[in-house]
Specification:
The complex is a heterodimer of chains A (253) and B (476).
Chain A lengths: L2 H4 L13 H17 L4 H13 L8 H25 L5 H24 L2 H11 L4 H12 L1 H17 L8 H32 L18 H23 L10
Chain B lengths: L18 E9 L8 E8 L4 E5 L6 H9 L8 E8 L11 E4 L12 H11 L4 H14 L15 H14 L4 E5 L7 H15 L5 E5 L12 E6 L2 E5 L22 E10 L9 E9 L3 E5 L6 H8 L7 E6 L1 H4 L14 H5 L2 E4 L12 H11 L4 H14 L15 H13 L5 E5 L7 H16 L3 E5 L3 H7 L2 E4 L1
Parallel strand pairs in B: 3-7, 3-8, 5-6, 6-7, 12-16, 12-17, 14-15, 15-16
Antiparallel strand pairs in B: 1-2, 1-4, 8-9, 10-11, 10-13
Helix pairs in contact in B: 2-3, 2-4, 3-4, 4-5, 9-10, 9-11
């Protein structure tokens, strides 16, 4: 019941005061640089810089950090190991480089989730990037239903037992039962979703009148500094890589 | 008062509406009978009326007609219905609706943002939004500030917030569609108090739709009852008949203890406080046990423990030999029995009937339990037919359970539990949101089960139910 709360945004941190579109821009810059460079030095520098930002996003508690990043670390580790073991001429350095790339690509996502209130994100996207309000606020409303879905999963699972339906130790029966539960949840979610859509409609959502925004979303100097800083770190990373003779961009050679 | 300067005029600020229905009739697609016929009704601007009636009488149809959401898919409409002279469909911008389920009406994560949502949609400039949000929150008596997370609110508080969001748009017509049906008594009175407070200035025409008329009477000017597709106006001083009047229930025969909670409690993994503190309670054959108490005390959790659906994290739930006879490992607690063994001994009825439906046909729904517990097909069919007959659902034998009305679904969910003839029946809020007719039918049915030696354990907020049925009580 609680993951949505404990893994949500951490309020009042320096990073959370940034405009979400600035964070997204920085994330795009990092992504472009990392997917085009195949060496080990570039991702190492970028990851080091990202790690320095963890305290700014309020991620100082190691247990909390682990809960947010374990799937990522597991994935990165296996990418590295698989490449070292199965690659033809892959060295340990290449493996480490690939693992670092995965971490470097995913950590901004972890930072974004920790630093961004979803409502502020929707505000910023619709105001600065002209994302459709129908999409942004529709998604926001749908997100509210996720915790309800988790609670309902438990009820529907127990309800099967009250009807004499259970899988026991048979894995096939278990899979079928789970499929049944998933279907029941889907039906419930669709019904609740359409009720929510009716309620939003009744409050004039997407009625053709240009929508205003009560909270607004402002871009500050610090947002420009963040983006410039990101570009700077990436430039340093690539420069170091070239100087070390490790630079191997994906498009060249 | 229309176009002067600035942005397009907002239609939601034109004062209370007048509603006129003349000879209104509605027939739904693919139905022979008319859901409504010859409805004549005039509601003056600012009036507050209660639209009541048994479930299935046509209240929802009339509500949909007023809300302008009828016309879809071949519905036939006769006569006329106007909202301030326009068709309800064209007047939808002046309408505000408060429905049953708060969770499918809230949009934003913080209270203030949710109220602001409808104003943003109307294109109101940001600087004029927050004063109106505060005004609407004050009008419904919302006790927290704008930053309150909506997730942290109780059901009654959520409904108050939804009402604030509706009122902030200054609608000319407010439709309240059974707004307290999913709330406990304190939550329901919270919402009624908010409605009373917010509609006192008559700035909107208000129509409350509820089968449970009595609690709304002090709040409304007139009562209109929908009876078999038409409307009957009740004079001042009208009171609905008590649902307990003239009810004759079979007496409890009394019998041995079948199930006992021994210091049974439950704590969710990772939680610090228990969901249910240790409880000792016997469940006896031929007697009805009522479990009462306010929200959050673990009533439903106790039901799950007694029903053999969850394992207690402290203490035990012990079944008597009469109940465990034939269970392969009868010395174990009920939550470890096989599902097929459980359903012939302990039947459970959840608060939400739809969660328990597993098939696409009423008949299959009733044969499922017996077949799963090893009964022969012919016997299962006979049981199903008998139950359909007994509950007046024979005409719907081939219908999908999801297409039934709320009252019919409730009867069906009780019937599915009875199909396997359990000795113990555990029910969670079985009378929630049910009209008087279904209520009486349900109470009679439970008393019948009790008379044949069944132990009935019922978790409830319903004081009438406790009064007429309970032989033993436990308050958590």
């Amino acid at each position: 019941m609680t993951p949505s709360l404990t893994l949500g945004p951490v309020a009042g941190t320096p990073l959370s005061r940034m405009n979400p579109v600035a964070l997204l821009t920085a994330m795009i810059v990092v992504t472009l640089v990392l997917i085009t460079s195949l060496d080990v030095v570039t991702p190492a520098v970028v990851v080091a810089a990202e790690l320095c930002l963890l305290p700014a996003a309020g991620l100082t508690d190691l247990r909390d950090l682990w809960r947010r990043t374990w799937p990522l670390l597991l994935g990165a580790g296996s990418v590295g190991i698989v490449n070292v073991l199965l690659g033809d001429d892959a060295t340990v350095v290449t493996g480490v480089g690939l693992a670092l790339r995965v971490v470097g690509l995913a950590l901004p996502g972890v930072l974004l989730v920790a630093a961004t209130d979803p409502v502020r994100l929707a505000d910023a996207l619709t105001i600065h990037w002209r994302v459709s309000t129908r999409f942004a606020f529709g998604a926001l409303a749908a997100m509210r239903l996720v915790p309800l879905l988790i609670a309902e999963f438990e009820s529907v699972r127990l309800a099967r037992r009250t009807r004499g339906v259970e899988a026991g130790r048979n894995p096939v029966a278990r899979a079928r039962l789970l499929a049944g539960v998933a279907f029941a949840l889907l039906v419930g979610a669709v019904r609740r979703g359409s009720r929510l859509a009716t309620a939003m409609d009744a409050r004039g959502f997407d009625s053709g009148i240009p929508r205003t925004n009560a909270r607004g979303s402002e871009l500050h100097r610090r947002d420009a500094v963040l983006v410039a800083g990101t570009v700077g770190v990436c430039a340093v990373a690539v420069t170091l890589s070239v100087l070390a003779g490790a630079w191997s961009p994906i498009f060249v050679g | 008062m229309t176009t002067t300067r600035g942005p397009a005029p907002i239609r939601t600020e034109a004062g209370p509406v007048r509603i006129v229905a003349r000879g209104l009739g509605v027939r739904h697609a693919s139905r022979h009978a008319w859901a409504l016929t010859g409805v004549d009704l005039v509601v003056e601007p600012g009036e507050r009326i209660l639209l009541t009636g048994a479930s299935g009488a046509g209240k929802s149809t009339l509500l949909a007609a007023l809300a302008g959401i009828l016309e879809a898919e071949g519905t036939e409409v006769a006569g006329e219905l106007t909202v301030d002279g326009a068709s309800p469909r064209d007047a939808r911008g002046r309408l505000g609706i408060l429905a049953q389920d708060p969770d499918s009406q809230l949009v934003m994560t913080r209270a203030g943002d949710d109220v602001a949502f409808g104003l943003e949609n109307a294109g109101i400039p940001a600087e004029r939004i927050w004063p109106r949000v505060d005004e609407a929150l004050a009008a419904v008596g919302f006790p927290y500030d704008r930053d309150r997370p909506t997730q942290a609110l109780s059901g009654g508080e959520k409904q108050r917030l939804v009402l604030a969001g509706v009122l902030a748009r200054r609608p000319g017509l407010v439709l309240l569609d059974e707004p307290t049906a999913q709330l406990d008594p304190p939550g329901a009175s919270l919402v009624r108090a908010a409605v009373a407070r917010a509609t006192a200035d008559r700035s909107a025409t208000t129509i409350v739709v509820d089968h449970d008329a009595a609690p709304w009477l002090p709040l409304v000017d007139r009562v209109v009852e929908v009876v078999a597709g038409g409307v009957v106006e009740h004079g001042p001083g009208w009171r609905p008949a008590s649902r307990t009047a003239g009810l004759h229930l079979l007496p409890p025969p009394d019998g041995p203890v079948l199930l006992t909670a021994l210091g049974a409690g439950f704590t969710y993994r990772g939680a610090t406080a228990p969901a249910l503190s240790r409880v000792d309670v016997p469940v006896r054959a031929g007697r009805a046990l009522a479990v009462t108490g306010s929200n959050g005390t673990g009533k439903s959790t106790l039901a799950l423990l007694l029903a053999g659906l969850r394992a207690p994290t402290t203490g035990r739930v012990e079944a008597a030999p009469e109940l465990t006879e034939g269970v392969r490992r009868g010395h174990r607690e009920p939550h470890r029995w096989r599902a097929g063994e459980l359903v012939t001994r302990i039947g459970t009825v959840f608060q939400n009937p739809e969660q328990q439906f597993l098939t696409g046909r009423l008949h299959d729904e009733l044969t499922l339990g017996p077949l799963r517990s090893g009964e022969h097909a012919a016997a299962a069919r006979a049981t199903a037919e008998e139950l359909l007959e007994r509950l007046g659902l024979t005409a719907f034998a081939d219908a999908n359970p999801y297409t039934l009305s709320g009252g019919q679904q409730r009867r069906l969910s009780v019937a599915t539990a009875l199909a396997t003839s359990p000795r113990v029946l555990v029910l969670d809020e079985p009378t929630f949101g049910q009209d008087a007719a279904t209520w009486r039918e349900l109470v009679t049915l439970l008393a019948e089960q009790r008379a044949r030696g069944c132990a009935v354990a019922v978790v409830t907020h319903d004081a009438d139910l406790v009064q007429v049925l309970a032989d033993d009580r436990i308050s958590l």
